[in-house]
Design goal:
Blueprint lengths: L1 E5 L16 H9 L1 H7 L10 E10 L9 E10 L3 E10 L2 E14 L4 E2 L4 H8 L6
Antiparallel strand pairs: 1-3, 2-5, 3-4, 4-5, 5-6
Amino acid sequence: MFTARFSPRVYETDAFGHINNTVVPCWFEAAREPIFRIFTPEMDLKALNIIIARIEVDYVAQIHYGHEVTVHTGIARIGNSSFVVWHEAFQRGQLVAKGSVVHVYFDFSQQKSGPLPEPLKAALKEHLRAE
């Protein structure tokens, strides 16, 4: 499991004084950087050969400005050409959001998905969440 911390910023609030719902997927993406480094340790974005097929976010509780948010991230499932990443966000010890992202291993030169290479599968398995 990976952990990332975010300090909500004033401009991330909405008209109701809560953190805007569009911010959480951005935090989740930033929290996936360690997973991206499995595919390209140097974070060469041109070498990052995965794409997003699906994003789900469940907003469990209100998120407020002024209190740090901690996001836990790991691997939920590994398939032949895709893998699912899970996220859970906490503020002041309370679960405030959770979600998942389906990434597909993608060959940009062929413009199609392909099988995940075994070394990448093995690296992802190290972060697989126990059921």
